[in-house]
Amino acid sequence: MVLILGIVGLTGCTMTRPGLIKKFDQTKISQIKEGETTRAEVEQLLGPPMWCQMNPLTQKITLGYFGVVDVHVDRPIHEEVAEVAEMGKMGIGAAIRGAISGVIQTVLPIPGPIPVDQIATMFLPKSPKSEPFKSQTVSVTIGVDGKVTNITKQLRQSTAKGGVFQPEIQGTKIDFAKVAQIHEGETTTAELEKLLGVPQLITEESHEVTWEYQWNWRKGEQRQNENVEVTFDPQGKVKKLTKDSYRGTTRFYGDASVPLDRNNLLKIQVGKTTREEIEHLLGQPTWESTEEREAMTQTRVTYRRLSKKGQPPCFELITFMLDANGVVKGIEERGAVK
Fold first, then answer.
1. What's the confidence (pLDDT) of residue 160?
2. What pLDDT sits at residue 267?
3. Is CATH 3.10.20 the classification given to domain 172-252?
4. Cα 307 from Cα 314, distance rounded (Å)
5. What pLDDT score does 22 carry?
6. CA–CA separation, 224 vs 237, rounded Å?
7. In this predicted structure, what is the pLDDT of residue 295?
8. Helix (H) / strand (E) containing 240
9. What pLDDT does residue 101 have?
10. How many angstroms separate the CA atoms of 26 and 45, rounded?
11. In terms of Cα–Cα distance, which of 198, 196, 197, 122 is closest to 160?
């Protein structure tokens, strides 16, 4: 609580931090071209980013920007997708969340990019009632040649509720009986919204649109998650459907300022390297999460290291997925799995 109060006391100056609260100009975002635009040109168009994250294996850097927008509860979300960059006036509660999240991002072991509502609700007291709000995130990845390799735009509409001593709940529990009525190649965006309601997250990447329905329950280290992800084809029909649900725990061990040794990273091999060998090469992870499903249990160990100081500081981030025997079965690099 002392930490929270200290952060609240800083919001007066944090609110004006460049890159923290943006009203995106879609015309400027459209000027960013993969393979052409440089990092300097990105920052000239969008300003300094809120966060900076580096992939320690590929050396690619991701710059993150976000803003908070009005929620039109009665308006179908599929009508708003084309207007994802139109941002309204920001409410006081959303502004405080955004400001505090900017400070939290720099001093606590929270990976970036994470949607601002998820970061803030980890630390702020919740209302017994759900409070809907909408945020937009734009992530721009820069290759080793200094030019843009990828642009991702996300629109998140979410709610969070709970109390100081109560579990934190985000989103709405998913009706998997209704999920069974979704058919690839047939179901449209309007039909999907009628079945499951408004998605918590809409992602546009490489001209492909994905909707995600999420329900998250967390109390201390314990958590439960339900997730349905739907990708649409150019005709607005379901192209791919994935669903998941699990129980899990997350334990934080603390940040470290020593950058990861890339030579040691390259020694880690899928199907061979064990957790003990990872820790021998890289040291203790920043956090560990365990996911328990009906058919399997999976553990993830995540390393987050300060790579470069500045405003904002740039962090290395990489996650190793382990099988039941503690052997690496995949490497997650900003959502991409090897």
1. 66
2. 97
3. no
4. 6
5. 53
6. 30
7. 76
8. strand 238-252
9. 41
10. 11
11. 122
Please state the separation of Cα 247 from the chain's center in Å. Answer: 19
Q: What is the DSSP letter of 90?
A: P
Do 135 and 70 meet the contact criterion of CB atoms below 8 Å apart?
no
Joined tokens for residue 225: 């998650």
Q: How many of the other CB atoms lie within 10 Å of CB of 261?
A: 13
Q: Identify whether the C-beta of residue 35 lies closer than 8 Å to the C-beta of residue 149.
A: yes
Q: Which tokens belong to 201?
A: 């997250």
Of the candidates 158, 162, 138, 156, the residue with the CA atom closest to the CA atom of residue 148: 138
Containing H/E element for 6? helix 2-14
Residues 6+ apart with CB under 8 A from 40: none
- Locate 97 and state its tokens: 């969340």
Distance CA 108, CA 81 (A): 33
- Range 258-337 has CATH code 2.60.120.260: no
Sign of torsion over alpha carbons 39, 40, 43, 48? positive
Query: Model-level pTM?
Result: 0.72
The per-residue pLDDT for 337 is 44
What pLDDT was estimated at residue 223? Answer: 92
Please state, in angstroms and rounded to a whole number, the distance separating the CA atoms of residues 157 and 130.
12
Give the pairing of strands 51-54 and 314-322. Answer: parallel
Structure token pair of residue 165: 């001593």
Structure tokens at 21: 């609260």
Q: What is the pLDDT of residue 35?
A: 95
Q: Over the stretch 5-38, which tens digit does the pLDDT of each residue have?
A: 333 333 222 333 444 445 677 789 899 999 999 9
End-to-end CA gap in the chain: 40
210-268 residue pLDDT tens:
999 999 999 989 999 999 999 999 999 999 999 999 999 999 988 777 889 999 999 99
Low-confidence ranges of the chain (pLDDT < 50): 1-21, 71-130, 335-338
Domain ranges of the chain: 1-153, 172-252, 258-337
- Residue position matching structure tokens 């329950």: 217
Is there a shared CATH topology between the 172-252 domain and the 258-337 domain?
Answer: yes
Helices (H), 174-257: 176-179, 189-196
Which residues, 6 or more positions from 288, have their beta carbon under 8 angstroms from its beta carbon? 250, 251, 253, 299, 300, 301, 302
